[in-house]
Each structure stands twice: as structure tokens, then as C-alpha cells.
């Protein structure tokens, strides 16, 4: 019996180098999809989106001429994400390494090159970026956001008109839309626990304050030892959000405030083997524990330039990564006379995004191999056998205070067959940061493993008793940046065809002063290694043709060209290349061909894409300069739903070929990104006579091979992951059981990004974990 073309396309993913066959199979699948319809089944609800449109005007998703996905609050609840980044797996074209904990993920988009963090990702609330720069070292946008019951929906826009609007992001903009109050008072209270002792309470309430004045207030408190048990409450947080909305005679005004204090253990790569023998460490392991969490870290020291004294300070590695800050924002939307529309949106972000954790350095070895076969002891006097495993860990400390302000003002005029929007976007952002990283010392390998006594190993960096010590970076830096951008966007309608185009003219000024001489006078000693200044003028554009040739079917073609600018990054952006006069702006051009199908029983949004980048810096570990790479990627994204009575099937798939296009590595796969990922989520609804409703669902994820480096020497094997859950509702009560990684798949998301060549370390996906929640809606 012949396979259906869609089944054939999914089977093809097992052969990651046969991309042309995948494309042709998917094309056949699209043509045959009408045969899948079954009359009478429940269908999708019409979706309105506001991301990627001039002034944030709402349009039907089906009418959009770009690739955008939506995730409702009900779908967010079903996913039960472990972090904000974990939720982004629901967006096609996005690869997420969320195995690092509640903060500090690595997020990649459509094969665009990145060594980690989230170079091409913006996280926004109600249309404005939390921080205009997508990534600083040890801080990417998802760190600054926590998902809770106050979110109405998530919109994820890839490519498309992104380079023209808001902060000009060329990759992915994830826009979280807050809930607003209505005429009736309503709310939710939810308690969540887990097999890793999570204790969390969420609550939200909304309603009417006065005539045309509405409110929403909600948040959470949470505490747990973490999925990888630290032995103490390593994940703790709380958040509160207030959103006030006023309906005006000719529009709407809104203001919100969100305050967050949330952190969790920083999960890092672990030792995989010693001389080919497995260490026995698995996905439940984390080095930090109650016995080793308090560490003396050098805050200044000898640098060979006259200093000889090292000074130390105690830090808690258990704090991990997190965000302690606030976001305040608002908007005014007015409908003026003669079809004029005025919109102004603003936001202010300020707070601390700190990182503390044990970073592995090199392979694990036996203690005896370091000291002539002798045994030893820890700093507390515990015996360590000669064949016990030890490894170097650096207690890294990165303290970041950030601040950012955004304002996006637009004025639009609509005629019968035309619309024109003029806009002015301005933003300013700052960082005040201090690093002490490297600092490696020998530790007994294993959870709660203590530092090895200096008497057991001859090592100049083993403790504060030693007068001299060296470490990789002691950075003290200040940065500020400002962007002013003017944009103009227009669209015209010719029958069923819509043409739109936009141009953005940008001036970006960046200043960054860095001191990492580590002399013994301490931070802010007046000695500055370099002061970097960049003043860039660039033009970005986008243009598209959208043809809805039937009420339920359409296509679009879009091109765009945008830029990624250098940001405050002592490790990557502002290094040798900048001092040599190189332009650090990365140019990104993209082409998209989209197909849209939205019927009563199923929907499918398929987008083929091609992108080219020039100038992305990739730095050797410890090197003084960076290679400037050119890359290219082609691929296709699928976002679909099938409704067959009480059965629903969600499809989220990405097939791509991201390659380096220049230099000695030309033809190699771009590091850390799979050539394909497929997520299938079937669910089935049950209704019982006594008013009980239930649903059973699961998600099967198929992830292809990846490489941990651009040289393609560190291969990360493909894997399959399965999650499932059950939801039951009785009157206003509801319960949910969610099982993540049900088969306890042991798979790597990354090798050691600080290693050159084959890596002895790797980071596993999170182990199997179970959450249980009870909620009450009123």
C-alpha cells in the first residue's frame, strides 16, 4: 500500500542529507491535504495577530504575508513549559536548548549562525522589546521573562517584516500579549507540585474598576530544589503583574507593570567519560550542592603588571541564573478623523540579570593521575581515593545591572485601497557589569563534590592561601547605546492581491568601556583596556505580495534585508576585529515563499525560506580575534492542525540546511542547529454525562543530528523525546498531570562550547519529570 505524501515526508526526516526529497514530498503533501477533511468536526477559531504589522494593527493571521505562529493561554497550560525558552519550542523554525535551567537558554532561528545565547531573538511584552539588544554575554532576552497566568497568548514572528518594525530584529520576535479585564470579574487560582518537590501557586483576577476602566492583576510564588536536585531550594521566584486598560471614545489606553524576582541553578555540561569509560553521570546530575555552594571568588589579583595581591569575596553558586527587575509599559491607540490612526507604545526595563555557577574546564581525571598515584582529601578533610574522579570547575560570577527604554510612535492613514504608516522608534539601553570567570579549581566530581585540598594537588589557583593566581577574565565594564529609527510602510489592495513594503532608516550609537587588567587596585580603578564606540547608519527594508486566491487558501512571497549590530560583549563583538577597524554589523537577507490553508477541519501554514548572513563573529576560546563567517540556509516550516471530531493533531516541523559559506569551513553545517525537527501533538477530548470533561495528549519530538562546533568534530546524536499529559475539568475545577521526557531519553543539547576540538563534556536534556496541578476558575 502506498504511503500518503505527508507520511512519506515525515519518514524522509530520518535521512537528514536528502533535503530536496523532503521539499518535494512536502509539496505533494500540500496538494493532497484537501482529501483529509471530514465534515462535522470542530474547527479552528479565527486568529487575530498584532505582531509584524505597522503600529501593531490587528489583522487575521490568514491575511498576514509573513510566517507567524500563535500559542493561546490554553495551549501554554497544556505545554506546561519548564521555562520561557522551553515554550518557544512550539514555534516552527526555532531550535531551543532549554536544558540550562529556568534562565540562560540558547535559542537559534532558521539556521542563522550563533555560538550560543540568542543572537537573533527578541522577547517583547505588548509589542515592545524587554531589552533592545537580543543578547549580551550571559544574558539573552528570555532570561528577563517568566510565563504565568497573566499571559493571553504568544505570537512568534520569524523573518518577514521584522527588520523594519520595533527593534529591527531580523530573526524571531516573540510577543507576549497580556490579559486585560472585561465587564465580568473572573480569575484563576492554581497550585502546582511535582516529583522534584516543586511548590507553586499562580493566581490571576480581572474585571471592571469603573465605566470603561478595567484591570488585570496576577502572578505567582514558586520554590523547588530543581529538576536536577541541588539538595536545597535552588529555584525560587515570585512575580506580580498589573495591567490597567481604559476604553476611550476613540480608542484605548493601557499601562502595565511587572515585577519579577526569579532564579535557578545554572545547569552546565557534565563529564561524559574518562579514557573512554563512562563517568556514570546522567541528566539528573548537577555539581552545585549545599556543601560547595559558598565559594571564595577572586575579585582582583596579580596580572604581571605590578600587582601581587589577590583579593577574594564569597559568592553563592546556588543562586544560578535569574532576573530581579521590573518592566513598566503602556500604549495609547487613537482613531482620529478621516481614517487617521495614532499609536504610541513605550516601556522601561530595569534590574539585575546575574549568573553564578560551576563551569567545567577540561576532562574529568582520577586524582592519582595528578599527584603521582597518591590519595588526597577535600578542603573539609574528607578522604579522596587515588582512583576517585576529579574535574576542574570555575566558580564563575557575572553581575549585570541593565536598563532600557523604548518608544514606538506611529501615524497611519487609510484610504479605500491604500494604507500608509509613518513611524519613529527610539530606544536607549545600558549595562553595568562585572565578571570573574575562569577561576578553575579541582573538585571531587559528583553532586555536592567539594574542592580538593591544595595540599593534595599542586596548583597555583587552588585556594586563597596562594599569593598569585590567574583566571581567564576579570571584566569591569560600562556600556550605553541609543537607536533612532524612522520607518515608512505602505500597502495597497488590488482585488485579492495585497502588496506591502516598508523601509527603516536607522542610526545606532554604541559606547562600551572595558577594564579587564585585573590589577590589585580592584574594580573601577581608572585603568581601561579599551573604549569602543560605534556609530552606524543603516537602511533595512521588506516587501511582499500576498494573494488570497480563495477564501480558505492563499500564498505570499516576501523579501527582506536587515542588520544585527554589535552590542556590549567583551567576549565576542568588541575584540580584535573591532580594534583593527572592521565593521561589526552583520548583514542578513531573507526570502520567503508561503502557503496558507485554513478550513473548518484543518489548517496548514507552510513557509519556505532562504537566508544569507555576512559578518557573524566566531571566536576561538581564549583567542584575541574572531573569524567573520558568511552563512546560508534554506528550509521549510510547517505549522498545522487537523480536527477529526474530538481528535486534534498538531504539526510543528522544520527542515533546513544551514551551512557555512566561506573560508576553510565552507560547506560545514552551522553549529548547534539540527537539519530537521518534527513535533507531533495528538490529543483526544472526552465528555461524560455527569459534566466531567477530559483530554489526553502527547508530543513526539524527532530531532536530527547537530554539531557542537563549526568544524563539525563534535557530533550530537539525533534523539526522540515523548511528553504526555491528562487534563480533567469538573465544573470550575480542573486538574492536570504533565509528564516531560516520559521515556527518560538521555540526549545531548550541546557539547562544551569552551572546548576546542573534541569535547569531553556535554549537557543533557532535562530528565523525566512530572508536574501535577489543581486549579479553580471563577
Automatic annotation (TrEMBL):
It is found in: Cell outer membrane. The keyword Iron applies. The lineage of its organism: Bacteria, Pseudomonadati, Pseudomonadota, Gammaproteobacteria, Cellvibrionales. This is TonB-dependent receptor. PANTHER family: CATECHOLATE SIDEROPHORE RECEPTOR FIU, FERRICHROME IRON RECEPTOR-RELATED. Residues 1-37 form the signal peptide. One of its GO terms (molecular function) is siderophore uptake transmembrane transporter activity. Keywords: Cell outer membrane, Ion transport, Iron, Iron transport, Membrane, Receptor, Signal, TonB box, Transmembrane, Transmembrane beta strand, Transport. It is a multi-pass membrane protein. SUPFAM superfamilies: Porins. One of its GO terms (cellular component) is cell outer membrane.
Amino acid at each position: 500500500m502506498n504511503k500518503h505524501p505527508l507520511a512519506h515526508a515525515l519518514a524522509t526526516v530520518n535521512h537528514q542529507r536528502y533535503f530536496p526529497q523532503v521539499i518535494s514530498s512536502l509539496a505533494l503533501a500540500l496538494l493532497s491535504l484537501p482529501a483529509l477533511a471530514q465534515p462535522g468536526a470542530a474547527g479552528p477559531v479565527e486568529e487575530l495577530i498584532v505582531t509584524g504589522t505597522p503600529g501593531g494593527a490587528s489583522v487575521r493571521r490568514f491575511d498576514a504575508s509573513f510566517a507567524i505562529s500563535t500559542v493561546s493561554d490554553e495551549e501554554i497550560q497544556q505545554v506546561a513549559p519548564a521555562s520561557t525558552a522551553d515554550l518557544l519550542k512550539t514555534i516552527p523554525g526555532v531550535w531551543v536548548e532549554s536544558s540550562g535551567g529556568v534562565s540562560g537558554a540558547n535559542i537559534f532561528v532558521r539556521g542563522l549562525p550563533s555560538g550560543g545565547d540568542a543572537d537573533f531573538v527578541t522577547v517583547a511584552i505588548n509589542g515592545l522589546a524587554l531589552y533592545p539588544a537580543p543578547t549580551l554575554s550571559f544574558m539573552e532576552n528570555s532570561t528577563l521573562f517568566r510565563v504565568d497566568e497573566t499571559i493571553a497568548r504568544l505570537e512568534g514572528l520569524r523573518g518577514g517584516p521584522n527588520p523594519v518594525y520595533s527593534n529591527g530584529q531580523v530573526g524571531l520576535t516573540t510577543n507576549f500579549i497580556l490579559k486585560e479585564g472585561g465587564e465580568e470579574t473572573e480569575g484563576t487560582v492554581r497550585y502546582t507540585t511535582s516529583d522534584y518537590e516543586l511548590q507553586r501557586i499562580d493566581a490571576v483576577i480581572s474585571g471592571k474598576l469603573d465605566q470603561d476602566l478595567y484591570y488585570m492583576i496576577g502572578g505567582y510564588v514558586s520554590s523547588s530544589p530543581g529538576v536536577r536536585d541541588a539538595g536545597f531550594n535552588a529555584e525560587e521566584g515570585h512575580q506580580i503583574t498589573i495591567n490597567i486598560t481604559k476604553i476611550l471614545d476613540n480608542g484605548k489606553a493601557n499601562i502595565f507593570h511587572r515585577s519579577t524576582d526569579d532564579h535557578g541553578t545554572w545547569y552546565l555540561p557534565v563529564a561524559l567519560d574518562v579514557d573512554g569509560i563512562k563517568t556514570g553521570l546522567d541528566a539528573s546530575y548537577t555539581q552545585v550542592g549545599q556543601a560547595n555552594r559558598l565559594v571564595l571568588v577572586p575579585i582582583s589579583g596579580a596580572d604581571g603588571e605590578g600587582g601581587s595581591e589577590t583579593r577574594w569575596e564569597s559568592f553563592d553558586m546556588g543562586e544560578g541564573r535569574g532576573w530581579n527587575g521590573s518592566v513598566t509599559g503602556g500604549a495609547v491607540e487613537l482613531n482620529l478623523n478621516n481614517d487617521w490612526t495614532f499609536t504610541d507604545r513605550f516601556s522601561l526595563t530595569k534590574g539585575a540579570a546575574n549568573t553564578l555557577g560551576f563551569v567545567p574546564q577540561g576532562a574529568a581525571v582520577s586524582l592519582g593521575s595528578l599527584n603521582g598515584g597518591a590519595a588526597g582529601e577535600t578542603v573539609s578533610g574528607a578522604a579522596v581515593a587515588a582512583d576517585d574522579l576529579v574535574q576542574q570547575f570555575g566558580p564563575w560570577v557575572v553581575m549585570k545591572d541593565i536598563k532600557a527604554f523604548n518608544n514606538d510612535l506611529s501615524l497611519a492613514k487609510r484610504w479605500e485601497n491604500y494604507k500608509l504608516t509613518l513611524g519613529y522608534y527610539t530606544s536607549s539601553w545600558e549595562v553595568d557589569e562585572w565578571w570573574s570567570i575562569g577561576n578553575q579549581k579541582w573538585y571531587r566530581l559528583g553532586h555536592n563534590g567539594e574542592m580538593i585540598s591544595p595540599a593534595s594537588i599542586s596548583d597555583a589557583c587552588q585556594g586563597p592561601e596562594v599569593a598569585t593566581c590567574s583566571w581567564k577574565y576579570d571584566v569591569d565594564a560600562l556600556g550605553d547605546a541609543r537607536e533612532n529609527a524612522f520607518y515608512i510602510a505602505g500597502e495597497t489592495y488590488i482585488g485579492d492581491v495585497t502588496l506591502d513594503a516598508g523601509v527603516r532608516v536607522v542610526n545606532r550609537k554604541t559606547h562600551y568601556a572595558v577594564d579587564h587588567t585585573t590589577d590589585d587596585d580592584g574594580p573601577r580603578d581608572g585603568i581601561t583596556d579599551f573604549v569602543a564606540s560605534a556609530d552606524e547608519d543603516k537602511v533595512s527594508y521588506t516587501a511582499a505580495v500576498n494573494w488570497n486566491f480563495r477564501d480558505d487558501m492563499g500564498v505570499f512571497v516576501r523579501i527582506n534585508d536587515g542588520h544585527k549590530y554589535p552590542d556590549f560583549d567583551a567576549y565576542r563583538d568588541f575584540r580584535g576585529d573591532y580594534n583593527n577597524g572592521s565593521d561589526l554589523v552583520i548583514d542578513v537577507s531573507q526570502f520567503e515563499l508561503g502557503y496558507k490553508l485554513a478550513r473548518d477541519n484543518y489548517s496548514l501554514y507552510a513557509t519556505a525560506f532562504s537566508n544569507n548572513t555576512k559578518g557573524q563573529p566566531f571566536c576561538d576560546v581564549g583567542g584575541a580575534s574572531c573569524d567573520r563567517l558568511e552563512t546560508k540556509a534554506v528550509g521549510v516550516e510547517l505549522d498545522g492542525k487537523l480536527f477529526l471530531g474530538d481528535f486534534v493533531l498538531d504539526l510543528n516541523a522544520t527542515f533546513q540546511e544551514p551551512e557555512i559559506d566561506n573560508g576553510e569551513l565552507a560547506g560545514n553545517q552551522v553549529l548547534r542547529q539540527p537539519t530537521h525537527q518534527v513535533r507531533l501533538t495528538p490529543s483526544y477530548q472526552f465528555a461524560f454525562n455527569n459534566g466531567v470533561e477530559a483530554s489526553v495528549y502527547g508530543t513526539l519530538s524527532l530531532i536530527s543530528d547537530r554539531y557542537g562546533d563549526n568544524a563539525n568534530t563534535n557530533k550530537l546524536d539525533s534523539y526522540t523525546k515523548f511528553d504526555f499529559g491528562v487534563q480533567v475539568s469538573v465544573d470550575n475545577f480542573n486538574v492536570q498531570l504533565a509528564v516531560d521526557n516520559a521515556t527518560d531519553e538521555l540526549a545531548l543539547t550541546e557539547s562544551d562550547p569552551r572546548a576546542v576540538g573534541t569535547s569531553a563534556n556535554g549537557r543533557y536534556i532535562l530528565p523525566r519529570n512530572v508536574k501535577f496541578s489543581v486549579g479553580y476558575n471563577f
